[in-house]
C-alpha cells in the first residue's frame, strides 16, 4: 500500500472517530429537551434565556430592527440594552426563514441553535491543535471539545438561548485567525510587500472581533490578550520585522472593526466598555498604535541592553497613561473600572452565584482528570516555548493564563476555560503518544516470511493509541456522567417550574394592562411611561420570567437594576417605609416564592444595607453535636426582624396579624475553628410568648440573642399589613405545620385600602384560589382599620366568605372593590 493511500486511510479513520464524538456530544446537548417541552408552557434554560427569547420575538415582529432601549425592563426608568444584537438577530433570521411565527415555534427554532452551532467548535479546535503542535493534537482536541463537561457544554444545551456560547465561538475563532496572523508575520518581510494570506487572516480576525463585540462587549478581553502578546513577544524576541508585520495586520484587523462598529455599533453615550460606546473605537486605535510603538522602541534600542528596551516599552506607556488620566480622566476611569469589575467583582458583596471563585472541587467536578492532564500540557508548552522560542505557543499560553485567572476569580467564565482545558490536555496526550511510540521505545524486529506478530509486539506497536484512547474514554465517560446528571436532574431545580409558569400566566390574564406594547420597539429619546403603567416587584432572579410570560414590567431583573431598593422593601420591618419605597418604584404587584424566603434570603439584607446587616435577620450559631461531642454543627436561627420583614409578613403570614409563639434566648461565646472564630452556643433558654415579647422590648446583654428556629413561629406579635392582599398562590405546598401552609409562589396586589372606623380587632375569612382558608386579622390604629380586601364574594380566585367582623363589638362591615382601590 502506498504512502498516499495509508495517509488517506488514516485521515478517514480520524474523521470517523471525530464524527462519533461529535454525534455523542450532540446527543448530550439534547438531554434537557424532554423536560423543557413538557409542563404548562414550553421552557428555556436559566434566567437570561427568557430575555433573549423576548428580544428574538421583538426582532421577528419588527424585522430586522433591534431594541436598543427596553421599557419592559427596570421600571420606572426603562433600560438601555447592553447585550449585542448578534445572537437574537441570528435566531430571528432563522425563525423568519423557517416560517416560525408563533411563540412556541420561535422558541423551538431558537432552542436548536446552541447544539447545532456547537459543532463549529470541532473544526476550529482541530485546526488550532494542528497549528500549535501537530495533527494528532488537532484530532484529540476535536474529539474532546465535543464531550467535555462544565459550563461550556451546558450553555450549548438545547434550550439554553444565551449569548455566552457564541462568546466562546467568536473568541476561539478570533484566536485561531490571529495565530495565522502571527505565523504569517514571522514568515515574511513587510518592507517588501504584505502577503495576501496576511491580509486575509487579518481581515478574518477583525471580522471575528466585530461579531464577538456585537454579540457581547466582553469580547474586549481578547483584544487585551493579543495586546499583551505583542508586548511579551517584543520583549522576548526583539524581532522588529515580525512587529512590522503585526503593525500592518493590526491596522487591517482593527481597521475593519472600526469601520463596521462605527457604522453599526455605537448606541450608547458615555465611555463604557460594557456598553456600545465610542470607547471601543479608542481601544481599537490603541491596539493599532501598540505594535508600531513596539517596533520603534526595538529600533531605538537595537544593540542596547535588554534593560533599556524593557524600560522604554514599559515606562513610556506608564507616562502616557498618567498624562491621559489628567487630560481624559473619564476614559481612564472607564478602563480602570472595567478592569476592576471584570477581575475583582466581589461575590461576598452581592451573593451572585456566578461571581464566586472557581475552586478545585468545582473545577474537577466539571473537567475531571482532564484538568490534571491540562496542567501537564501547560508545563510542557511553557518548557518548549522558552527552550526554543515560539511566538504561536507564547500566544496560546497568554490566552490560557488570562482565561484561567479570570475563571479562578469568577466561575462564570468557566465556559471560556473549557477550550483551554481541551487544548492543553490534547497537547499533553499528543506528547504521551509520541513518548510511547515504538520508535521511542525500541526498534521493532523484522519478521520472517509467514511469521505473525506476537500479542506483546502488537500491544507495543499500538501502545500509544491504547493508552491515549483509554484516557480519552475515561474523560468522555466522566464528562457524560456529570452531563447526564445536570441535563436530566439539576436543571429542573434551577429552571422555571410549573408553579411559576402558572402564576405568571395568571398575572397576564388577570392584571390590568401596563400601557406598554411588549412587541413594540421604543426610542429612548423622549420616551415616558403612560399614566397607567406600573411595575411588578420580585427578586431580581425572576425579572425576565415576568417580562416574557406575564408581559408585565419587572422592577428588577438579572441585569441587577434597582436591586437595592427592592431588597430594602423586602427586608423593611415597617410597612409605611416599605410603602414609600414601593411608591418610588411604581410597584403594583409583589411576587414572592419559597426560595426568596429560604435560600435567597441571606442576599436580601446584603443588597439592602451591606454585609453588616446580615446578622440582624438570620444568624448561624454552632451547637455541640449530640452524636460527637468534639463536633459542632451549624444551626440557622431567625431573629425578630426576620419575622417582621415585609417578605416574611407577606409570604409566611399572608399579611395578617400573627401572635407570638415564644422564642429562645441563646447564650454564646466565640470558638476558634481553623482560621476563623464562630459563635458557639453555651446555653439555650426557651421563652413563652410573654417572655419573648418582654425580652424583645429590652436590651440584650452581650453574648445573648433572641431567636427562633422555625419559619412559622414568630418571636413577637406580627402586625397586619394594610395595603397588600393575596390574589394568587400556586398549587405546590412547599412547607406546612399547624400554624401555616406555604405555597411555592404567591402574588400580592398593592392597594390603597379602605378605612373603617372602630377600635379592637377586625377579622375577615379568606379562601385562596387553591382552597386554603385563613383569617385576615388586624388591630385598630388610632381608632381606624385600613383594610386591603373587598368583601365581594364572587367565589373565583382568592375570595372572602363573609364580611369584616369586629371581635369586640360584633359589628360587621361590607367593603366594595371600588372602596378598596
TrEMBL record:
It catalyses: an archaeal dolichyl phosphooligosaccharide + [protein]-L-asparagine = an archaeal dolichyl phosphate + a glycoprotein with the oligosaccharide chain attached by N-beta-D-glycosyl linkage to a protein L-asparagine. It is a multi-pass membrane protein. The chain crosses the membrane at residues 12-30, 81-100, 106-127, 164-181, 193-213, 219-236, 248-267, 279-298, 310-343, 363-383, 390-409, 415-436, 463-484. The keyword Transmembrane applies. It is found in: Cell membrane. Residues 498-595 form the AglB-like core domain. Gene3D superfamilies: 2.60.40.3390, 3.40.50.12610. It holds the Pfam family AglB_core-like. Pathway: Protein modification; protein glycosylation. Its cofactor is Mn(2+); Mg(2+). NCBIfam families: archaeo_STT3. This is dolichyl-phosphooligosaccharide-protein glycotransferase. It comes from Methanospirillum lacunae.
Amino acid at each position: 500500500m502506498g504512502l498516499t493511500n495509508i495517509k488517506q486511510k488514516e485521515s478517514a479513520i480520524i474523521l470517523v472517530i471525530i464524527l462519533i464524538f461529535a454525534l455523542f456530544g450532540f446527543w448530550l446537548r439534547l438531554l434537557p429537551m424532554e423536560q423543557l417541552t413538557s409542563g404548562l408552557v414550553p421552557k428555556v434554560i436559566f434566567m437570561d434565556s427568557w430575555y433573549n427569547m423576548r428580544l428574538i420575538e421583538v426582532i421577528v415582529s419588527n424585522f430586522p430592527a433591534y431594541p436598543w432601549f427596553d421599557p419592559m425592563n427596570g421600571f420606572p426608568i426603562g433600560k438601555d440594552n447592553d447585550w449585542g444584537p448578534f445572537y437574537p438577530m441570528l435566531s430571528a433570521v432563522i425563525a423568519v426563514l423557517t416560517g416560525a411565527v408563533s411563540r412556541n415555534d420561535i422558541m423551538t427554532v431558537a432552542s436548536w441553535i446552541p447544539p447545532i452551532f456547537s459543532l463549529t467548535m470541532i473544526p476550529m479546535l482541530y485546526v488550532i491543535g494542528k497549528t500549535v503542535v501537530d495533527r494528532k493534537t488537532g484530532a484529540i482536541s476535536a474529539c474532546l471539545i465535543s464531550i467535555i463537561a462544565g459550563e461550556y457544554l451546558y450553555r450549548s444545551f438545547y434550550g439554553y438561548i444565551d449569548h455566552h456560547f457564541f462568546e466562546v465561538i467568536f473568541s476561539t475563532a478570533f484566536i485561531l485567525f490571529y495565530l495565522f496572523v502571527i505565523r504569517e508575520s514571522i514568515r515574511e518581510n513587510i518592507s517588501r510587500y504584505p502577503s495576501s494570506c496576511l491580509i486575509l487572516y487579518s481581515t478574518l480576525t477583525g471580522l471575528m472581533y466585530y461579531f464577538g463585540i456585537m454579540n457581547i462587549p466582553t469580547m474586549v478581553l481578547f483584544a487585551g490578550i493579543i495586546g499583551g502578546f505583542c508586548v511579551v513577544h517584543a520583549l522576548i524576541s526583539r524581532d522588529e520585522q515580525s512587529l512590522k508585520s503585526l503593525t500592518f495586520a493590526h491596522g487591517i484587523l482593527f481597521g475593519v472593526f472600526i469601520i463596521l462598529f462605527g457604522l453599526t455599533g455605537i448606541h450608547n453615550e458615555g465611555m463604557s466598555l460594557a456598553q456600545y460606546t465610542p470607547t471601543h473605537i479608542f481601544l481599537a486605535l490603541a491596539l493599532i498604535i501598540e505594535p508600531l510603538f513596539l517596533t520603534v522602541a526595538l529600533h531605538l534600542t537595537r544593540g542596547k541592553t535588554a534593560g533599556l528596551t524593557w524600560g522604554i516599552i514599559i515606562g513610556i506607556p506608564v507616562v502616557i497613561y498618567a498624562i491621559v488620566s489628567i487630560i481624559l480622566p473619564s476614559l481612564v476611569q472607564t478602563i480602570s473600572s472595567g478592569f476592576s469589575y471584570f477581575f475583582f467583582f466581589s461575590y461576598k458583596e452581592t451573593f451572585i452565584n456566578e461571581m464566586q471563585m472557581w475552586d478545585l472541587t468545582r473545577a474537577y467536578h466539571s473537567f475531571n482528570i482532564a484538568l490534571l492532564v491540562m496542567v501537564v500540557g501547560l508545563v510542557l508548552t511553557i518548557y518548549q516555548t522558552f527552550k526554543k522560542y515560539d511566538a504561536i505557543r507564547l500566544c496560546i499560553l497568554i490566552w490560557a493564563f488570562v482565561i484561567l485567572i479570570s475563571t479562578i476569580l469568577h466561575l462564570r467564565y468557566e465556559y471560556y476555560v473549557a477550550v483551554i482545558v481541551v487544548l492543553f490536555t490534547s497537547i499533553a496526550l499528543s506528547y504521551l503518544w509520541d513518548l510511547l511510540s515504538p520508535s521511542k521505545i525500541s526498534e521493532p524486529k523484522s519478521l520472517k516470511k509467514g511469521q505473525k506478530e506476537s500479542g506483546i509486539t502488537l500491544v507495543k506497536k499500538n501502545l500509544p493509541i491504547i493508552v491515549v484512547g483509554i484516557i480519552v474514554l475515561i474523560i468522555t465517560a466522566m464528562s457524560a456522567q456529570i452531563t447526564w446528571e445536570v441535563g436530566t436532574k439539576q436543571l429542573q431545580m434551577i429552571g422555571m417550574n410549573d408553579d411559576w409558569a402558572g402564576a405568571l400566566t395568571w398575572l397576564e390574564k388577570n392584571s390590568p394592562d401596563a400601557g406598554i406594547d411588549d412587541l413594540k420597539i421604543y426610542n429612548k429619546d423622549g420616551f415616558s411611561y403612560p399614566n397607567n403603567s406600573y411595575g411588578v416587584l420580585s427578586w431580581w432572579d425572576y425579572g425576565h420570567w415576568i417580562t416574557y410570560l406575564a408581559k408585565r414590567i419587572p422592577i428588577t431583573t438579572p441585569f441587577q437594576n434597582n436591586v437595592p431598593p427592592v431588597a430594602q422593601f423586602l427586608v423593611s420591618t415597617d410597612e409605611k417605609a416599605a410603602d414609600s419605597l414601593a411608591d418610588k418604584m411604581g410597584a403594583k404587584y409583589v411576587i414572592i416564592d419559597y426560595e426568596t424566603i429560604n435560600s435567597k434570603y441571606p442576599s436580601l439584607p446584603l443588597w439592602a444595607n451591606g454585609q453588616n446587616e446580615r446578622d440582624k435577620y438570620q444568624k448561624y450559631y454552632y451547637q455541640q453535636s449530640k452524636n460527637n461531642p468534639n463536633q459542632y454543627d451549624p444551626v440557622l436561627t431567625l431573629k425578630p426582624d426576620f419575622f417582621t420583614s415585609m417578605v416574611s409578613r407577606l409570604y409566611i403570614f399572608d399579611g395578617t396579624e400573627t401572635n407570638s409563639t415564644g422564642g429562645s434566648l441563646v447564650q454564646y461565646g466565640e470558638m476558634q475553628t481553623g482560621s476563623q472564630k464562630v459563635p458557639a452556643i453555651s446555653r439555650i433558654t426557651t421563652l413563652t410568648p410573654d417572655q419573648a415579647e418582654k425580652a424583645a422590648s429590652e436590651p440584650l446583654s452581650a453574648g445573648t440573642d433572641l431567636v427562633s428556629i422555625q419559619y412559622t413561629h414568630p418571636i413577637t406579635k406580627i402586625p397586619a399589613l394594610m395595603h397588600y392582599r393575596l390574589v394568587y398562590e400556586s398549587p405546590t405546598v412547599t412547607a406546612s405545620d399547624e400554624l401555616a401552609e406555604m405555597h411555592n409562589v404567591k402574588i400580592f396586589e398593592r392597594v390603597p385600602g379602605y378605612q373603617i372606623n372602630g377600635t379592637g380587632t377586625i377579622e375577615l375569612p379568606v379562601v385562596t384560589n387553591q382552597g386554603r382558608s385563613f383569617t385576615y386579622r388586624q388591630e385598630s390604629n388610632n381608632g381606624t382599620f385600613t383594610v386591603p380586601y373587598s368583601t365581594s364574594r364572587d367565589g373565583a380566585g382568592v375570595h372572602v366568605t363573609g364580611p369584616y367582623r369586629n371581635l369586640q363589638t360584633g359589628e360587621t362591615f361590607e367593603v366594595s372593590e371600588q372602596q378598596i382601590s
